[in-house]
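== Sequence and structure of one protein ==
=== Format: two labelled lines per protein ===
==== Data for this protein ====
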Amino acid sequence: MYRISELADLVGLSRTALLYYEKLELICAKRLSNGYRVYNDRDVQRIRLIQQLQAGGLTLKECQACLEAKVDRALLKKRLDHLDQEIEHKQQSRRLLAALLGEGVQHEWHDTLSEVAPDAHLDWLITQGFNEKEALRLKWLSKDMNEHDKYMADFMKVFETLERWGPGSEEETRKALSLLPKTPETILEIGSGKGLSTRVLAKHTAAAITAVDNELSAINKLNDTMQKEGLSEQVSPVCASMTELPFDERSFDLIWAEGCAYIMGTENALKEWKPLLKESGLLVISDLVWLTDEPHPESAAFWKSEYPDIQTIETRLAQIKAAGYQTLQQFTISLDAWRNYFMPLQARVDELKPDMADSAAIKDISKELDIYHNHLGDEFGYHFFIVQKLS
């Protein structure tokens, strides 16, 4: 026989818990002449059976039902499903913690944050010690805080010899320029890269051009090109972030941004760049868009990861209007403009692959090239929007 304190020590429960068990008639104490409760070995075994059932996730009342009648299989199946969900959640938690410690991949987590909390994601990366440039690259490219430096070294090795770092052509730039309703005197080109579009703007306008990029090697290349072309007096290269442009409000007649607004979010770009335009100033922006409402699942999954803010043309037009602009002209760039970019990139990847077979950057670029080969043209493309500031 066991007094309640002895039983509590034996089964690892509190006196209050045992009294509740007794209230539910799960155990039954006998009263001694002095009023003390005492329990027998049968009570001990019932408690231990209940504890085993509770270890399977059953509540105390569900345990009672199992003791008093046949096992409710539907109830057990429900509890099993719930437990499987909890295990999967715990496994996800473990994978995340392991990834943050460098023991696993972080891609899925960064993808999710880029979709549901893009600004907070960027701020958090900066808090972790990355400058804004590297935080943006980590967000869009490496997606791994522990392997970022290695990834970017491989990534830049691929692109360092390429003339183009994105889709486009001189013909597309000239076409967009020809659709402007007035000739600009001051142009801010954002995301200038090595200066391919800058050269077209300089040769076909008399405007003073400020060319901005956050990659110093690209700015140096642009500067060399402008000097060789005799355009250095017309073009002023600036190494700066598109999110913190060091210019006064109402400084430019035209802002030109080919294929780069996604870095800070197209809607953010429309809002943040607008004050830099003079009254009725113009903005030329190209952005990746869906050309169909039903893309192939492979294409949809890829761009959901790589560019979760990809939209249809109609959605972008609505966003442009909501941001206080009027759309004057628009067109989708040609497949030739894409080939100018991805065919040399494919050749470069094929050249490097034998010696960089394990490179995460090479694998990611190869996957992107597969998407171009399989789905470009019918499903997605770059679209130019020529818009005018209304207020």
